[in-house]
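Page 42, continued from yesterday. The earlier attempt failed because a stray header line got pasted into the input along with the sequence. Redoing it now with the clean sequence only.
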Amino acid sequence: MAATPVRVIVNFISRDKEAFLKSAKQVVLSSRKEPGCLVTNLYKEMGSTSEPGTTRFVVVSNWESEASLESHMKTEHVKMFGEQIKDHSSLEVIRRYQQII
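This time it went through. C-alpha cells are written below.
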C-alpha cells in the first residue's frame, strides 16, 4: 500500500519580519532538499494583521508521507529555525491535511 501524501500549513506571526525572513529562507531551502519533500513555499499575508507592528507568514508544504514529515520535524535546520525566531516570532498553528479527492 502506498503512503498517503500530507499537506502541512504552518502559521507564524512576527514582530521582526526581516529577521523572520532571513531564518525562514534558510529553513525553506533546506527543507526543499529533504527526501520526501514534494514542495515547500513561504507566503506573507496580504494586508495588515490584527496586531499592529506584526506580520503574518505561512509555510505550505507537501510531503510524501506522514513519516517523511515526522523526519523533517526532527531535522537540525527545523530546530535551528525555532531557536532563531523565538525572540521575535511565534508559531500560531500547525495543520496537517490529507488529500481526499
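Notes: The beta strands are 6-14, 37-44, 55-63, 89-98.
Reminder to self: strip header lines before submitting.
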